[in-house]
């Protein structure tokens, strides 16, 4: 009997993040996150409504529209964004349910690139690296710039494949 090849650590921890995302009841984007120090798993989280509160599948999304001025080709352009504010993001839940002392120097694996708000929170969390799979174009450039300014490594797993059998929604853009 031949043993299948062992997964590398990035794949292993991203698989766990995707497994965590399956707990999400969000109909727009299911996100999972894990906190790792060295090769030790310290916590998992997913996006969803606060404990005891109806989630999006029960009460519908609570959408707000935001506008942001962005620079494109030396011109300012107004961009409209739509966000659901019913849920707490996976990264936020991860920070809420882990200790600062555990986060010092740790890595966060997250299925989706953090949004601007989560990036700001991660910047002050003590983590040293963020690894993600799916991009988040709405905030990508400014999130990467922020992480560079804070000395936090951020990288995308380009060739990662979601494990067979894990059902996730394709993110709505």
From TrEMBL:
GO terms of molecular function: dCMP deaminase activity; zinc ion binding
Binding site for Zn(2+): 89, 115, 118
Cofactor: Zn(2+)
Active-site residues (renumbered): 91
Pfam families registered for this protein in UniProt: dCMP_cyt_deam_1 (PF00383)
UniProt superkingdom: Bacteria
Annotated Gene Ontology cellular component terms: cytoplasm
Presence of keyword Transcription: no
GO terms (BP aspect): pyrimidine nucleotide metabolic process
Family recorded in the similarity comment: Belongs to the cytidine and deoxycytidylate deaminase family.
Name this protein carries in UniProt: Deaminase
């Amino acid at each position: 009997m031949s043993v299948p090849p062992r997964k590398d650590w990035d794949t292993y921890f991203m698989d766990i993040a995707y497994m965590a995302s399956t707990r999400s009841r969000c109909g727009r984007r299911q996100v999972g996150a894990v906190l790792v120090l060295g090769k030790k798993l310290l916590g998992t989280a997913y996006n969803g409504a606060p404990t005891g509160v109806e989630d999006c599948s029960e009460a519908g999304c609570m959408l707000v529209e935001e506008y942001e001025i962005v620079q494109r080709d030396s011109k300012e352009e107004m961009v409209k964004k739509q966000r659901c504010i019913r849920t707490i993001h996976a990264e936020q839940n991860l920070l809420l349910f882990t200790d600062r002392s555990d986060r010092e120097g740790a890595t966060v694996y997250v299925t989706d690139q953090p949004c601007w708000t989560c990036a700001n929170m991660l910047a002050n969390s003590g983590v040293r690296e963020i690894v993600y799979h799916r991009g988040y174009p709405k905030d990508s450039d400014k999130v990467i710039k922020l992480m560079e300014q804070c000395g936090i490594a951020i990288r995308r797993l380009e060739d990662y494949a979601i494990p067979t059998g894990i059902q996730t929604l394709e993110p709505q853009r």
